[in-house]
Amino acid sequence: MTDLLDRLRDVVGDDHVLTAADDVAAYVVDWTGVHAGAALAVVRPGSTDEVAAVVAACHEAGAPVVPQGGNTGLVAGGVPDASGSQVVLSLGRMRTVRDVDPVAGTITVDAGVVLADVQAAAERAGRLFPMSLGSEGSCTIGGNLATNAGGTAVLRYGMTRELVLGLEVVLPDGRVWDGLRGLRKDNTGYDLTQLFVGSEGTLGVITGAVLRLFPATTRHATAWVAVPGVAAAVALLGLAQERAGAHLSTFEIANRQALELVLAHLPGASDPLAEPSDWYVLVELAGTATDDGLDDSLEAILGDAVEADLAIDAAVASSPARRSALWALREGISEAQKVEGATLKQDVTLPIARLADWVDEIGPRVAAALPGVRPVTYGHVGDGNLHYNLSAPASSPASTEGRDGDADLRAAAAHLSTAIYDSVAAANGSISAEHGLGRAKAAAAASYKSEVEVDLMRAVKRALDPDGLMNPGALLPPP
Amino acid sequence: MTDLLDRLRDVVGDDHVLTAADDVAAYVVDWTGVHAGAALAVVRPGSTDEVAAVVAACHEAGAPVVPQGGNTGLVAGGVPDASGSQVVLSLGRMRTVRDVDPVAGTITVDAGVVLADVQAAAERAGRLFPMSLGSEGSCTIGGNLATNAGGTAVLRYGMTRELVLGLEVVLPDGRVWDGLRGLRKDNTGYDLTQLFVGSEGTLGVITGAVLRLFPATTRHATAWVAVPGVAAAVALLGLAQERAGAHLSTFEIANRQALELVLAHLPGASDPLAEPSDWYVLVELAGTATDDGLDDSLEAILGDAVEADLAIDAAVASSPARRSALWALREGISEAQKVEGATLKQDVTLPIARLADWVDEIGPRVAAALPGVRPVTYGHVGDGNLHYNLSAPASSPASTEGRDGDADLRAAAAHLSTAIYDSVAAANGSISAEHGLGRAKAAAAASYKSEVEVDLMRAVKRALDPDGLMNPGALLPPP
């Protein structure tokens, strides 16, 4: 493989082929800290042509390629396996916003542009790029595209696949497909763009994209609402949708445990309501500069909700600073849970009509599997998507017999995941709503699919990557 | 092939295998009347299992299959070629609405349900299925899905692919893929649903679908607006989007020639404005039952438009009957043009910023190619999509030297199409916005694509249909 490394150095320069342990460390472990591997090298090309040359070299050498964006994934989709034979291809140096066209409503970007920088470029042009995630300060748009990322704006604007018009992709043999078209309507063949979106780097490397922009939403009405339970939250969603229509842009849920972790670990966080509640929703209406009456509309919805026993109390943001403080409670959950200790991440969708029953049923099951486990439940109710994350039992010497809660959780992780997956599958849900499968969930997902469906997926994979060199083991388990 | 026909009769019954010339006549010519072929047989299965058995039998016999819905296509995508060897598989007997779930916002239908019946089923449940086309009374949802149909609601709700959550598909070997999932978020592998949408029956036969429903829009404000030109229409679109936001649901354009054909051929049609104008737009705001102020909002937009010289005059619908009358002017164009005589259909997208210039440039070119040709120009300005349809020169003995205008148009059709395609391609547009490619445009579309892109499409085709029996020659030209 020395030949390959030399060739890669010729392509990108010595400084951008990393092999020393210290240099590669940040690229081989994902955000969870659980999924850790080893790389033959980390290569950091600076252009589409360099990506193409790197992939072509790996193709000729038979070396597997693992594309990586901001490395904020949670399912071992962007980090190498333990073999030490895989080349990590980091897109992090490709950070150019190539074009912004506010009239056409498009922005064209390199894959390595950080999501927050895409948002900022759109804002400077008086437009909105609506995708928003907790990790937006470090995740890249290429990773968002490769995983079909979700986030808090899906309710109104859809998943990543609904926000993209065209792609530029380096294929597994190193050829470049230029599909950077900005047309809303183009029925001239198979939708290759949609095929690559969500393919998790297993069919090629996304190097650029044309994304959709929307009218800027400069007005907001935001509230943190205590609700009696999940069923009430779902009913409140229906009420808000009926009353606010397309203005309803956010409808997020969190349980008390989630809020308590944020209050404990996020500097400056405070409970916006006087009394604790088992469940909360963060609701926001958003409008353009000429949309008056959002505040009145939200107040009316909340008033009716309290009347109908769908809400207990609410804190309405009275200023941009208060709005940010309410959002911080929601956006801080993931980080706070990480600080608290070991976490078993889950990312499930349920048919929305079954969401409340599912939460009621799964609680006792996970408690039976690991006494003391703490469900930190939050997510995107409007999409039926919950992050049903389990924090380790709070450590207490009396109960752990020399082991701490983190170790208990890790020991029970496979068992807990299977219990959750089984119950989600039985309810016709999805075991990965927005995080993708990576290597962590590929086998589990395949086990819940029909043989026909797995065959179709394998046929697509073989057609585009016949040598199986693109992110092997991710999305589909080894044959 | 007698064996195959016997086997097909065993599957669907003698009455549903048509071979007599009179019986098959309606299935072998498409709506244009131009694309006419011959069929080995027309088979009309009544269930997914029957479709599977029919496809399996054809697969074993090596007989090509041409899936057909309402046969309203315009590009030879759903009719057989002239060989007489192809089996037309009509989905017209599969007309069951399987399920409507207004809470989840989903409807599950057989592929053969007529679009208007999908709309009606949604309306009975208090919801909206927004897709709307001129042919909605006879086209089927399966055909809409196979072609990724567009229509007049794309501006607000998107193309067909944005309205579908899951599919049931009979694969080329007769196996059934059950992908009938109603989840908004499901990142568990390649998006097979999106791969089949728009694949024009070349990868399998869509037999069922789960579609998205939206809040019913029961309030409308509608106007027929005379505008000074295409550039003004595009500017007025920007104004309307800024002012009406998500309430803007329709923004259609038509030239004077289009209106005149409707006035001549549609019984009861009348010009809503006192003075003729070269160009018109039909604009509509739509809202739910609680949306007040649509009329005021439209009046304000039109007032500002006149002020800014973006509009000359406007007729605002004062009643549901007047609204229907304005819509009839737009929806009647295609039929009126057919009555008028031979038509060369076009369906192009331009980047919206280049739309006005393109219309200015293409007029002289087509006039040079065929003096007297009449561009009947209309379509979905909001999507950059024009139906730049050419009607034959009005017949006049002095100028035709024994030939009529229809014959002149047919003789010049290939030349005219190439001129239009070339200019669209040069402007980074698409030669098929919403009609698809069929066999009529497959070769042309491939000629404007890169070799890499055609290779990718062929790889997908080979992977799913290795024997090449599904709608051969449609979407991709023969290798």
Automatic annotation (TrEMBL), chains A, B:
PROSITE patterns: FAD_PCMH. It holds the Pfam family FAD_binding_4. Keywords: FAD, Flavoprotein, Oxidoreductase. InterPro entries: FAD-bd_oxidored_4_C, FAD-bd_PCMH, FAD-bd_PCMH-like_sf, FAD-bd_PCMH_sub1, FAD-bd_PCMH_sub2, FAD-linked_Oxase-like_C, FAD-oxidored/transferase_4, Oxid_FAD_bind_N. Residues 35-216 form the FAD-binding PCMH-type domain. SUPFAM superfamilies: FAD-binding/transporter-associated domain-like (SSF56176), FAD-linked oxidases, C-terminal domain (SSF55103). The keyword Oxidoreductase applies. It comes from the Bacteria. Belongs to the FAD-binding oxidoreductase/transferase type 4 family. This is FAD-binding oxidoreductase. It comes from Nocardioides renjunii.
